[in-house]
Write a structure and sequence with these properties.
Layout (H helix, E strand, L loop, with lengths): L2 H12 L25 E5 L4 H6 L6 H12 L8 E4 L13 H18 L3 E5 L1 H7 L5 H4 L3 E4 L2 E6 L2 H6 L4 H9 L1 H7 L11 H4 L9
Parallel strand pairs: 1-2, 1-3, 3-5
Antiparallel strand pairs: 4-5
The structure holds uracil (URA) and iron/sulfur cluster.
């Protein structure tokens, strides 16, 4: 199967998937969308009300803000892939659960393999946690981390920036860095998560 067919196959499977309980509340699966040669993938959390109605990612208020952020860097939604860690709407937009994220992960992995993007931008905590389990968004947002050969850039969720005005300039500044990050993608060193040893205070040497 070529990458384009694989992407279509993933979308077809998502729409009939019963691998986790989220399928009970699914009206339409939201596999994600974008061109096969996209250089960037944006990965959000999960579909909300409007996404579940339309079967398309980021079509509500957060989506309009995402469109604005893209326009700010001379990009259009048609240029990028937009998806989510879970492909079916969590009831009442609750947070996706760990089991649901892992049940759904094979779809995301296949999409990443098929598109082979230069940069993956995670939108929000759950998406960041999928790639960088121990990272803190307030310390790493907007920075590129190379994880298994791929650049991951964690950003605040656009919906969070809509609710909390102080995040707006932060997410705008993080987006402004994306064109450069895409250019530098090949040269970045591999990111190492700190081990518990690194986090310990250096031991005081006894002089006596
Ligand atoms: N929020 C998300 O995380 N994903 C969507 O698709 C829409 C809103
Ligand atoms: Fe399947 Fe993912 Fe939907 Fe769960 S969220 S039913 S794993 S497609």
């Amino acid at each position: 199967m070529n990458p384009e067919e694989e992407l279509k196959q993933v979308a077809a499977e998502v729409n009939v998937c019963t691998k986790c309980a989220l399928h009970y509340s699914r009206k339409n699966g939201v596999p994600g969308e974008g061109p096969i040669n996209a250089q960037i993938m944006f990965i959000g959390e999960g579909p909300g009300f409007h996404e579940n109605e339309q079967g398309r990612p980021f079509v509500g208020a957060a989506g309009r803000f995402l469109d604005e952020l893209l326009a700010g860097i001379q990009m259009k939604r048609e240029d990028v892939f937009i998806g989510n860690v879970v492909k079916c709407r969590p009831p009442s937009n609750r947070d996706p659960q760990t089991e649901e994220i892992s049940a759904c992960s094979s779809y995301l992995e296949r999409q990443i393999q098929a598109i082979n993007p230069k940069v993956i931008v995670t939108l929000g905590r759950y998406s960041m946690g999928y790639f960088l389990p121990n990272a803190k968004i307030s310390s790493i947002h907007g920075q590129a981390m190379k994880v298994i050969g791929r650049l991951i850039v964690a950003m605040y969720h656009p919906a969070a920036a809509l609710h909390q005005r102080s995040l707006r300039p932060i997410i705008e500044a993080d987006f402004a860095r994306l064109p450069d990050l895409i250019k530098q993608a090949g040269e970045m060193p591999e990111y190492q998560e700190k081990t518990s040893e690194d986090k310990q205070e250096p031991k005081q040497l006894s002089l006596f």
